[in-house]
Every structure is written in structure tokens, then in C-alpha cells.
Amino acid sequence: MPFGGYKLLTKFCDYDGMSNYIRPRTSGATIFFTVNLANRTSDLLVREVDKLRDAFMRTLADRKFNIDAIVVMPDHLHAVITLPENDHDYATRWGVIKGRFSRQIGKGDLRDSNLRRRERGVWQRRYWEHHIRDEDDYRAHVEYCWKNPVKHGYVEMPSDWPYSSIHRDIRLGRVSKEWQ
């Protein structure tokens, strides 16, 4: 698998003591993401999975990238994506995906901060990312996507969860029998 390299996430404190994070800007990188809904008790992502798929497909058409692995849980998703060479802009992609999905489903519970920022209150503002370092790291994060529904107690086998790229990977012969 191609890897765009790995850079450590750099942390520093500004004048008011708040932590700020500088996101790596590595072209062609492979990155693991966790993206959460604002309401962590919601089942919105699986209830409206077709709208989420549409947001992904439209974004893929506009801004190419590869979805190496993905699992959609009721209130969050995990994904491993690889950016094209000469492209490091995953932040815009996530903003577009989240915005397209949010506009299709309407507004969530809005706080004052959502209103000030003209947000719909559907997603948590930030997401977590980890730049993949090597083949072992890649495999561990793809498998994390596969096993997440089991970890949360939704199914007994990863292949029983319908909202996972494991089904594509099984069809392509990428998954050993232990995961099926």
C-alpha cells in the first residue's frame, strides 16, 4: 500500500494556555479518522446511511481520494483514506462530507456556539486523525474499522455489520476467514 509518510502531530500552547494542534500536511498520506456526531446517543448515521453515502460519493467525485476502509456506526464513523499524490487537504474533504450530510438531514440541537458559527449542530466540530506509519500500522487501523461493531456489541462477527467496507474487502479476497 502506498504511504505518503508520517509526521508527528505537533502540540504547542498559545498565550492563554489552550492547546492547539498543527495537523500534518503530507501529500498522498494515508490517514485513519474518527468522526463523531454531536449527539453521541443518536443512531442518525445508520438511520440515514444512504444520505451519508451520497455525501461521500459526491465528495469523491469532486475531490478524489481512496477509501481504504470505513465503518459507519450509529453515532460515529472510522475511516482509513489515502489522498492523491500532491494533495494533503483532508480537512476540506471532511468539511464537505459533513456539510453535505448535514444539509440533507436538517439541523440538530443547536447551541449558541453553533448559531454563531452558522453550524447545523449535527457533527462534533473536530475529528481525530492518525497518519499511518507503515504496513503494520495500516493493517491495524483497517482491522480496527472491521472489529469496531463487535467491540461495541452490535454483532458477533465483523462481517455481520452491514455498514462496513469489510464486505467489499471480502469480495476482493482481502479478508482472512477469521474476520468473516
Strand and helix layout:
Blueprint: E1 10-13, E2 19-22, E3 30-36, H1 44-47, H2 49-62, E4 66-72, E5 76-82, H3 90-105, H4 112-116, E6 128-131, H5 135-151, H6 166-171
Antiparallel strand pairs: 1-2, 3-5, 3-6, 4-5
Helix pairs in contact: 2-3
Structural class: alpha+beta
SS strand fraction: 15-25%
SSE series: EEEHHEEHHEHH
Major sheet description: 4 strands, antiparallel
Mean of residue pLDDT?
Answer: 84
- According to CATH, what is the class of one domain? Alpha Beta
Strand order of the largest sheet: 4-5-3-6
Rg over CA atoms = 17 Å
Oligomeric state of the chains? Answer: single chain
Q: Helical proportion? A: 25-40%
* CATH level-3 fold name of one domain: Alpha-Beta Plaits
Instruction: Give the total of beta strands.
Output: 6
Q: Tell me the span between the first and last alpha carbons.
A: 22 Å
How would you characterize this protein structure?
The protein is of the alpha+beta class. The protein has a domain at 10-134: Transposase IS200-like (Alpha-Beta Plaits, 2-Layer Sandwich). 34% of the residues lie in helices and 18% in strands. The protein has helices at residues 44-47, 49-62, 90-105, 112-116, 135-151, 166-171, and strands spanning 10-13, 19-22, 30-36, 66-72, 76-82, 128-131. A four-stranded antiparallel sheet has the order 4-5-3-6, covered by helices on one side. It has a two-stranded antiparallel ribbon with strand order 1-2. The chain starts with 9 loop residues before the first strand and ends in a 9-residue tail after the last helix.
